[in-house]
Structures are given as structure tokens and as C-alpha cells.
Amino acid sequence: MTFRQARWDEPPIWELSASAPTGRAPSISGVPDRWTRKEALRWPELSELEVLRHYTRLSQMNFGIETVTYPLGSCTMKYNPRVSEVIARRKTATELHPEQPVETVQGALEIIWRLERMLSRITGMPEISLQPAAGAHGEYSALLMIRAYFRDKGELGQRTEVLLPDTAHGTNPASATMAGFTTRELPSKSGCVDVDALRAAVSDTTACFMLTNPNTAGLFESDILEIAETVHRAGGMLYYDGANLNAILGITHPGKMGFDVAHLNLHKTFATPHGGGGPGAGVLAANATLAPYLPIPRVVKSGRKFRLDYDRPKSIGKVRSGPGNFGLDLRAFVFALIHGEEGLTHVARRAVLNSNYVAARLGKRLPRPFRPLVKHEFLLSGEPLLSRGVRTLDLAKRLLDEGVHAPTVYFPTIVPEALMVELPETESRRALDEYVAAFERALDDTDEHLRAAPTATSVSRIDEVECARHPLLSWKDLRADGLPPGGASDGRKP
Amino acid sequence: MVRWIPDSQRDEEEMLRAIGLTTSDELYSDVPRKARIGRLGIGTAQEEGEAVRAVDKILDRNRPFSRFANFLGGRFATRYFPAAVDSILQRSEFYTSYTPYQAEASQGMLQALFEFQSLWVELTGLDVANASLYDGATASGEALLLARRVHEGRRFLVPASLPWEERSVLSNYATGPGLTVVEIPFEERTGLIDLGRIAEEVRTGDVFGVLADVPNGFGHLDDHLFELRSTVGDLPLIVRADPLALTVLEPPAHYGADIVVGEGQSFGIPPSYGGPGVGLFACRKDFVRLSPGRIVGATHDKDGRRAYALTLQTREQHIRRSRATSNICTNESLIALAFVVYASVVGPRGLAELQRGLAERARTIASALAGLDGLRSPRFEAPYLSDFTIELTRGTASEFLERLRKRGVLGGVPLRDPRPGAPDQPERILVSATETVDDKAIAKLVSAASSALASTGGSK
Ligand SMILES: Cc1ncc(COP(=O)(O)O)c(C=O)c1O
Q1: Which of these CATH numbers, 1.10.10.60, 2.40.160.20, 3.90.1150.10, 3.10.350.10, describes A347-452?
Q2: Contacts of B320 in chain A (CB under 8 A)
Q3: Contact B19, A361 (CB under 8 A)
């Protein structure tokens, strides 16, 4: 193992300069004195190079896809094409204000319209809105649409419950609560929806069943058509969490599976960069029943011209201030255009192949719950390590020392000590083999090394429990806490 | 064959064989026949160069605001940003990384987010900021929900001057828990919030929170804000503030704000037709465990080195699920990074000077327009910074702006609810000063406006 992450003793930016303005902010004619800042903003004065050096050093203490394999399950950490970055930075894309007259943004509207048409075909759902900012925001918007639909039907008072499998991503139940529903999680059977349990659970109080397929155990819900029928027979809506769409592009789609409404994460399947946690771009896809409830404005084409349509009386209105994360939509459009039909289908097949290839090999070392054939991701259980006094967390940290990112850990919760591994289509066979080798070296390391990991990263193991117990959340807190200034290390033990 | 998928067909065949399969169809043996689809019909693959040409051809149908005398602004800034900001955003270690779940391998982003939080704390005067929300409007929505968690009631007060999009977003956030957003009218002459009405609403009861904005939807500074705290008693007071304005204005915590939200796009990234931006969110320390979003904390590694990690996660969806304080997962980290890099490159003095300069320019624009017959500039008698509102006394804002556009001027943001059935609205336009507005641009605006008004007969 030869990997070592950069280890800069890089202090917080305010420690880089003693020079900060003091006294009052400049006064502005016509602005009464009571408004003027009496103490200037407390922030360091630095040269451009000092700022650049600071953030460049910080960047060197951060894993990214162009440096390491990043197999976070459910996150679809694939290569973010450079060409999309270049296109998204064109002045003809960035220097557009959402309130510009439509005549001056015909290109943007056309991109949105064409991407919507493409996504409509990919999802098998007639209508698309690109307004939500991320997946969870799409879930929330869709649930508001469902709410409005049942209100119009006079069933809102009765349809108060959202059902989900216990493997559902945390955003699903959280979105349901925010949209005013109660939630009930149904126990899975062998990692999939237990259709009998679902039949017993649905009723005229069911507003919606939320499902991702393939699910977060990496399994395709083969009973999907019966699931759809069960939910529909009870008068409920079937919601598709599209976070895992990468596995099924061109094979099946939410429309064919019987879903009524869906969200997609363009920052997963369509390769827009995750940005260290965002921005993303959520997409709403709706069937004909729910389409009238999509957020406004809708982009419509009349003749050769595109315009914004606000005349949707049933629409839930706006879910954020702009029309969407256009910068991300454009990147996704470039991705889909270059791949085309064959490419997108290849994306899915290769992602699933990668996942099964690595699952078969790592399955020899750690137990794999449920059936062997998986889709874009797979689960392992770190439970056998417990007898060595080692946890999944230790294994994850030890993997960092190999110069690879760890899988998602401790999710879904139906598997003890879970590791959720996703290796998207852009990982080469060589990268997969190296990942397996790294994983095996980590497993074969001594218990002490595992517990002491990581040692090759810019800092060693962080006690996150301690961090939450004594929260220091800003410079202001650090000042109050009396941490000595200067230097990265003050020698204080946690 | 797209180069983004590595290896040859032979490699793939070998990989299939290694797992005991012969064709990639067998990977999908668990997908029922009846759920299979045929062709998608989205077209065939394009070479990178071909796709770039095709997309550029579409994009060329846009007319970027930099090609006009541009007075657009308000909730989306069209300002200039130093090139250094984007050069940091293009570090792949930042832009291609995920949420920093593995803290030890992600110190760079974590520290940058800690600095971002610190900057919003300094700007607002509050105690705690989170690591970003989607945008300014959703940050207001989350603030509404937080207010409801700390105070009983069903009614939430907002100024009627708030842009319609934001009222719509707030109404959506209010829908789930069955809450109501109530619009407080403004004084006709000043556009300032009707304090008497707020006092009355608070007395009648059932109010759980109040939102005010700095500057308000008309671009003005609402002097009544200084009286708001004493008017609303112990109700949570939310201020939605513009970050650049806060470099010269009193921090909202000083006049009693409990939560301060904002849109941060104006610090470092162009508007890109409305997104991405970044939602700014800060609150009092005693609200933090009920607050939404990811938060980075400072701590130490086991060797005593300073380190950072995501913290207070028991509030969040991945742990608390249906009882989480918010559903947010993916946020706007990269734009939060842009925010703190921008502020650091320009520096605190530079920012305050920039705001002062833009305010001076806005005054020049306002008085240049004031001489024209057919509009009032500024419409409201109240202090302002870079933005102010004009009102046409004849013709419609959309015709007026269209005439301006034909003469190479983007005159501003029409302040109207475009939904059919919206109540009759005065013809108001929000006009903004940016770095690119020079004397020539102002002269162009005035001449385009005067000829537009001249060709509009009769009064409205
Ligand atoms: C299965 C699943 N559903 C929903 C989400 C939420 O998406 P986002 O992070 O874009 O809000 C995620 C991603 O984290 C996910 O993996």
C-alpha cells in the first residue's frame, strides 16, 4: 500500500491573515444611519493567490471521482464528463436570467423541452418537469401533487397514509411527513416487497406506496406488476424513486412497471457532478392523471417557438424560485445526446455487470444476503468481523487507506453491519480488480490496523459522537470556545 | 462506442463468464417479460464534437444578458464574478465528490463548508448556519417549518411585496402541516410593511411566525423591521436577506431575527437561467437541534489534529426518517464553496465597496428615469441599495420591456404574478444596478424608455 493523501496543516481561512477591516461599513447616501453596519464584516483580507492556494490545498485533501474509485451504494458515482462542464460554462448558458424575455432564451427553453421529451421516453411517463433541485425535492413535490389530486377527488381526508418498504431511502418517509402524510414501513421479505404484507396493508386510507426499483438492496422487484395492481386496486398512487434508474435504462421503465409518478436524480443516472453534496437536479415524471398538478411554468412549443405556460389551474405552483437547475439539465442533455439509445442501454448493462462481477468475488469473503443476481449495486454484511472486534466502520476506514472510497455503510438497516457497493459503468475491469484486491487486503489486515485506520488520509479517525456532543459549528463558536489561533494542531485531545 | 464506458466487448464477455453467464441479457432474468420495453426512441449516439456543435447551435438561440444594457437582478444576480472563483469550482476533487460521509477522506470539502457556515454566521449575526439548502425560496420554506416547531399556531405572516414565486413556494411548504400563509399589505407610499396589521394579526392569535425581507420585494429597506421584534413579542422572526446587502447593513440578529435565510447565487456564480443557486440558512443556537440540513462541526482526530465532520445528524432523514427535521439530502455544497471563495477573493472591504458603488449607480439610474413622463421612479419613497421599483402610469410592463429589448435593453424584472386569474396588478418593474451598468448603458435605458413611453398613448 503506497497511497498517502496530501496532509496540509491548512488552518481555517481567517487564520491566514491578521488583516480584517474594523470600524463601520461605508455609509450609503439615502440609507439611514440605523441601517449601517456598526462593525465591518469580520472576514480576512487576502490576496487572490492566498485564497487560491488555500482552497487548492483543501481540494487535495478530498477524494473525487477523477482520483479514486468511489463505490458509494445508491449514489451512482460515475465519471462526470468534462465536455458537459465545458458546455455548461458557455456564456450562452450561464448569462441567462430567468426573467429575461422568452425571445432571448429560446435556446434554454429548447434544451429544457428536448430534455423533457427524452426523459419522457426514458421513463415512459408522458409529462416531465425539471423544477425540483434534487431527488428528495422531487419526492416532496410529487407527494404535494398527490395531495392536491386527492383533495380534488374529495379523498384527502381519508387518504392520509404513505406506505414504504423498510429498505426505502430516508428521504422517502421524510418527504411524506413534510407533505402531511403519516408513514408506515413494511418489512421486506428476502430483501424485496412482501406482496402479501402489502395486500394486507393497503386500504382506502392509502395515498401512495413509494418504491425504488431496483431497490436499495440492489434487487429488482420482480413482483412489480402485482405490486402496482395491488396499490391501484386500493385506489392509491404508486411512486417511483428513480435514484436507481441507472440499472434499467432501456430495459424497463417506471411507465411500463405501472408507476404513476416518479423522480429522477440527474446527478446520479445522468452523470451531473455531485459537487461535494450538491447541486443536483431532480426531475418529476407524471402520468396523465397527475400531469396537471406538475409545477409551473411548463415549457411548451407553439410552432417553432418555445414559451412558458402558467395556465395550469391544477398545478401545485412553484417548488423553488427558478425554473430548475438549468446548469445541470444542460449537462444531462449532453450526456444523453452523446450516449444515444444504444449507449444508455449499455450504461445499464455495464453497471449491472460491474456490480455482479465484484459481488461474486467479494461474496467469497463476506456474506451476501438475499439472492445472488443483483442490479447496479449489492449488499455485503460485515457481521462476521464482529467476532474479531472489528466493525463495518473499521473496514470502511481501512479501505480509505487503500486510496479508494468506502461503500455506503449501515444502510439499508435490514442487513446488520451493511456495506452497499455500487460500481457504475465507468469503472474499468482493471479498476474493479484493484478494488477487490484492496478490499481483500483490508479484510486480511490485522484487527489493530483495522481499528486504527485510516492512517493514510489527511487526518486520522474522527470521533463523530464527540463532535455532536460538543458542537463547534462556526468561527464564532471557536472564538467562544477559546481555541488557540494558528496552526492546524493545537494538541488538544478530544 | 462512447469512451465513457471502458474496455472491449471481449473484456465484458470475460467478466460475464467469470460470473457464470454468457450474455448480458441474463443479467436481467429477474425482470418479467411483461415489464420489458422496446426501443426508447431517443436517437443514436453522437460523437463528442458533433454533440457540442448541435448543443452550441441551440444555445446560440439565447441572447445572454451581457449583450444588452442589462438591468436585471432581484433574486438572481447578473453581476461579474472573478475568474478565480470558477477555477476552484473546477477542481475535480471538489466537484466530483459526494457528500462527505467519510470525513477523514473529505477534509477539504468539510473545512470549506465550515468556513461557509462561519461566513453566513458573521453576515447575519446569528449563532449557527447549516451547510446549504436548495435556494433562497426553499430556505424560507424550511424556516417556516422550523418556526412552527418552536411556536404554536397555524398562521404565518409574510409581506405582500414578496415575489409571487416565493409566496407560492411558502404556500407549498405550509400545505403539508395544514398551515396558512397570510399576506400583510404594505403602505401605499413607501411599500413598507403595515406594522399595525401585524400587531393586529398577532393579537388575534394563531400566528406562529413572521417573515420580512431585506431588501424587500421592491428593493427597499423596510425601516419598520427595527420595530418588528417588539411588535411580534416572542414569535419567531425570520429575515430573508441578501448577502451583499449584509456586508454594509446591520446584521439581522441585531434587530431580533431568530432565523436568517437568503439566496447565495449572487456570491460567485452566474444565474444559468435560474439554477443552481444556494439556500443560506442560519438560526439561534437553541433552535439548532430542530433545524434542517447538513451541518459541519469542528473537532479533532484521534491524534489531536484539528478536523471537521458532518454533525448533529440525528436530525436528518438518513437517521430520523419520518421524524427528520427535513427531507433534504443532496444540497448545494459546490455553490456554498463558490460563496465562500467569492467572498474571500473580493474580501470584506471589497464587498462593502462593491455594494456602496452599486447603490450609487442605482441612484443615478433612478434619477435618470425620474425625468420621464409615464413612469414613477422610484415608485416607493424608502431607502434602497442596488435595486428599486419603477411603476408605469401608462401601458403595460410587458409591452414596455419588449420595446426596450428591441433597442438592446433588458429593463428589469416585471413584478407580476403571471398566473391567469391573478388579481389586477400595477405595472411595476424592479430595476437593478450591476458592475456592467455604465453611463452609456444608463443613457441607452433612458432613451429606449422615453421612446417606448412616447409610443404608448393614453394613461392606464
Ligand atoms: C434511493 C434514494 N432515494 C432518494 C435519494 C435522495 O436524492 P437526493 O439526494 O438527490 O435528494 C437518494 C440519494 O441520496 C437515494 O439513494
Answers
A1: 3.90.1150.10
A2: 170, 174
A3: no
